[in-house]
Design a protein that fits this description.
Blueprint lengths: L1 H10 L20 H7 L6 H41 L6 H9 L14 H31 L5 E3 L11 E2 L1 H18 L1 H11 L8 H12 L8 H30 L9 H35 L7 H12 L8 H26 L1
Antiparallel strand pairs: 1-2
Helix pairs in contact: 3-5, 3-12, 5-6, 5-7, 6-9, 7-8, 9-10, 10-11, 10-12
């Protein structure tokens, strides 16, 4: 075919260009990771940088939008969970009644207490997390092509993911690292949110909560429980990404065994949501003790010296079962929130990509 093309070019009159519609053009094969960034056409370094930047912005936007919607809708679960984890309490019904009130004092809007810092943390935090996670996955995918072993394969027509496919270990590593980094950056917002949701403090506004934390504990007060948060977030995110990708891979294969071509959008959305629910349930169950200790540390920094001291006192005074406080409400909230955020994130990427 190349010899035929060469003969056609030699036969053309001097100074006359061959038509692009009739002249075959050979394009060098593009690597799977590069296809994610630049499609299937050759691209200059400048164009590649621009496309990479635009891709990062899409991940940032998609993650932020998904986090904002899920956080606002599921805030009541977060408030109830904080009340359950703050210490000795009654049943879920008692906590709910104390929170909402009874009779003429009933106010359902109290379930959305602390929504502003929660939405800010989730939208900004989710955007930063998905942006960071994408950059890490792209880097490992490119490194894998050069022998580093980070990438196992690329996304194919039978995959529901818009991200490069990595090995199980790489999924765990990137998920944990990205979440730990973003969790530390967003820690001050998390501390204010937890304090404001709790019944231990009668804050009238978020500004008064912020001022009180700074006046009592200084800047260090905004990072109380950072260790426990990292020990909760990093394993949770690592387990979640690993389980999520594993579930998607196996569900996609089972649903599209006899199908040729790309997976329909509706099927891909269903696969992503079910995978998110499954992964969220597993990761949340395994990391709930760290969430309980993180909440206690942030609510009572005067009582607990550090993570290990907090764990010792909680187990000694209330027994190991206290480490499962709020696990039901947390699983319900976290699994649905994660599934919704990831499904919307991947859907938005598929629409704008």
């Amino acid at each position: 075919m190349l010899d035929h093309a060469d003969s056609e070019r030699h036969a053309a009159p001097t100074g006359l260009r061959a038509s692009a519609a009739t002249t075959p053009i050979t394009v060098s094969p593009v690597s799977p990771a590069a296809e994610v960034l630049v499609g299937t056409t050759a691209t200059s370094p400048t164009q590649l940088a621009r496309k990479s930047s635009a891709g990062g912005q899409r991940h940032l936007f998609a993650g932020s939008f998904g986090g904002l919607l899920s956080s606002a809708a599921l805030q009541p679960f977060d408030v109830v969970k904080t009340r359950l984890q703050q210490g000795r309490h009654g049943s879920l019904v008692v906590v709910f009644r104390d929170l909402v009130g009874t009779g003429s004092q009933r106010n359902v809007l109290r379930l959305w207490r602390g929504t502003l810092p929660s939405v800010f943390r989730s939208s900004v935090g989710s955007g930063l997390y998905f942006f960071t996670l994408n950059e890490m996955r792209q880097a490992l995918s490119r490194a894998g092509e050069h022998g580093a072993g980070g990438s196992s394969s690329s996304s194919s027509n039978t995959s529901t993911s818009r991200l490069p496919t990595l090995s199980g270990q790489a999924n765990l590593l990137t998920g944990a690292a990205a979440r730990a980094l973003v969790g530390f950056v967003m820690m001050p917002v998390t501390v204010v949110k937890v304090r404001y949701e709790s019944s231990f403090y009668d804050y009238k506004s978020l500004i008064s909560a912020t001022r009180d934390i700074h006046a009592t504990h200084g800047l260090r007060g905004f990072f109380k429980g950072a260790g426990a948060t990292a020990m909760r977030d990093a394993p949770h995110a690592g387990l979640y990404v690993g389980a999520y990708e594993w579930c998607k891979q196996h569900l996609s294969k089972s649903l599209t065994a006899d199908q040729l071509g790309p997976i329909p959008t509706a099927t891909a959305t269903a696969v992503n949501f079910v995978s998110g629910l499954t992964a969220g349930t597993i990761a949340t169950l395994l990391t709930n003790p760290f969430d309980v200790l993180r909440t206690r540390l942030q609510l009572r920094p005067d009582l607990y010296r550090n993570f290990f001291h907090c764990a010792l006192l909680v187990i000694r005074d209330q027994g190991p079962r206290a480490l499962l406080d709020g696990v039901g409400i947390r699983v319900a909230r976290k699994s649905v929130s994660s599934a919704f955020t990831w499904t919307l994130y991947e859907y938005l990427l598929s629409q704008v990509g």
